[in-house]
Fold this sequence. Notes:
The structure holds 2 protein chains of 2 kinds. Chain A is an all-alpha fold. Chain A has one domain (3-257). Chain A is 76% helix and 0% strand. Chain A is built from 12 helices and no strands. Chain A has helices at residues 3-23, 25-46, 64-86, 91-101, 107-135, 142-169, 175-189, 197-203, 205-213, 215-227, 233-253, 261-264. The longest helix of chain A is centred in the middle third of the chain and has 29 residues, at 107-135. Chain B is an alpha/beta fold. Chain B has 2 domains: 1-79 and 159-245, P-loop containing nucleotide triphosphate hydrolases (Rossmann fold, 3-Layer(aba) Sandwich), CATH 3.40.50; 90-154, no CATH class. In chain B, the strands form 2 sheets. Chain B has a 6-stranded mixed beta sheet, sandwiched between helices. Chain B has a 4-stranded antiparallel beta sheet with strand order 2-1-4-5. In chain B, helix 5 packs parallel to helix 6 and helix 7 crosses helix 8. The longest helix of chain B has 18 residues, at 169-186. Chains A and B meet through helix 1, helix 4 and helix 12 of A and helix 1, helix 2 and helix 3 of B.
Amino acid sequence: MKAVQYYRCMWGIFVREALRFLHQRERFFGALVRPLVWLFIFAAGFRSVLGVSIIPPYETYILYEEYIVPGLAAMILLFSGMQSSLSMVYDREMGSMRMLMVSPFPRWYLLLCKLTAGTLVAIAQVYLFLGIAWFWDVQPPLMGYLLAFPALLLSGLMLGALGLLLSSAIKQLENFAGVMNFVIFPMFFASSALYPLWRIKDSSLLLYEICRFNPFTHAVELIRFSLYGQIGWVAFFAVVGSLLFFLAGALYGYDPARGLMSRKQGAG
Amino acid sequence: MSEAALRLLDVSFSYTKRPVLDQVSFTLDPGEFCVLLGVNGAGKTTLFSLITRLFVSPRGSISIYGYDLKHQSRKALAQLGVVFQQPTLDLDLSLIQNLHYHCALQGINPSKIADRLQLAMEEVGLADRAADRVRTLSGGQRRRVELVRALLHQPQLLLADEPTVGLDIHSRQAILQQVRNRCSADGIGVLWATHLVDEVEPEDQLVILHGGKILARGSAKQIMQQTGTDSVKQAFNHLTRSESS
């Protein structure tokens, strides 16, 4: 296979993901409505209850809406990463996954292309959300929107790789509810998405430690710092480390010789 | 080519302790239309999963045109066209977008095979519906699209896993005829898995798979002679009953 063929394959996978997303309008609005509800209703309601003191990267007191926007951006990536990967659990989707797997390109390359394509689609949703939030007076510096891109990409890849890993191990679609209960909600709530970690520390030291070890916390902080033109190095290394770990697990899961795929099938 | 299109040697596989495939061996030559006949649960789909390298058998070997699937998997897979039992078309994409996606997965530039794409759509009588979403096509039309898509990159071996299940008699006949024509015209090997005995012609090569074991291999006519029966159905019943008892 030549380099140009690798490029064609990648581009084809990207175009397919983009077209699928554009054609599924319910998915598009669903992905956008969720964080907007949190921003317009939840944040407005809790503004007076949850005061936020001056913490990096913020240089002044901020409204609660401003605090939760990076967390909501990460939430879009989290749901997208889980949904796009777990959709493979559908029989129909399993079929299209099989199509991908019989391609003569290396399997790691195909999975990486699929993962990146899904992440780029999710990032487009994040920017749309940030655009709406701008009209809601959440206005980070313009340069922040540009600097946030690599942070969003890394975080999206990390969460997508986690979804891919789960999809290689989950047997049935019904287990998606389990993923919601045991992965998405705990990851989201036990993080710095909705409240700063120092506030959690005041309430429970154990919960604080759990939040600190939650990769989603680091994704949120990486996005938060980048939106304000800074790099959170601890968050950066935590996200990159988690990405490599989840990716290695996903590649193992989809490896035909050792992986988990064969345990999911039945005789036919 | 002198190499067998497909060669399986002592392939065994189990999901749990119970074996789903037990020392399966057979070869398929280029230009041969071979029917893999077995009831549901015989192990056909598992066998296809192994040949398409969805997972790997710890025992036995599989080679496609001489390329060992374990050690030269990419070269082996490049020879393959596959129609899976489950539909794999993207319902929300148009017919042409689906075909372009397949080209991408094979590393082919669609604009360089525009003629072949046009011919493929004409072959299934859908040239005027290239821009229509696949969701608007009938079940039979979708299956035929999957078939021409699997042949788009001109593979040397076509695997079809029960592609006619759930279709009416006319669609079934049309699809079967389409594959037989391509098999004889292009000289490609075809492994056609089915549980429908009426899809087998007396001249077809036949592999009867039952309970993960091969009960018979040869032309349908030979197998009928060996079992002293007058039809493939009788031969199949004869062999599977003797195996069960």
